[in-house]
Amino acid sequence: MVFEFFRSGSQSAVDEAQATLVTMLENGHDIFMTASDALFGGGKSKETKREVRSTDREINEAQAAVRRALMVHAAVNSSDLPLVLQYAS
Description:
- Helix content is about 90%, strand content about 0%.
- It is mainly α.
- It has one domain.
């Protein structure tokens, strides 16, 4: 009964981390395309720089949050350690 509580909560933590990682990858692709368009398309502007920096900061914060959540998850549920190490890298 107690173990099921940790298992059900731990799986949702991994699922949440995976969803955050997917969002980070999508955001990374978006800012790459925006920066490439600005660089090669001549559309450099302060607004583009702000957008790229803002999105980059969001990605960095999400990365730190994912790593923190994964370390807590690994401390509670060591059977998922290989998955946690993959996601944390």
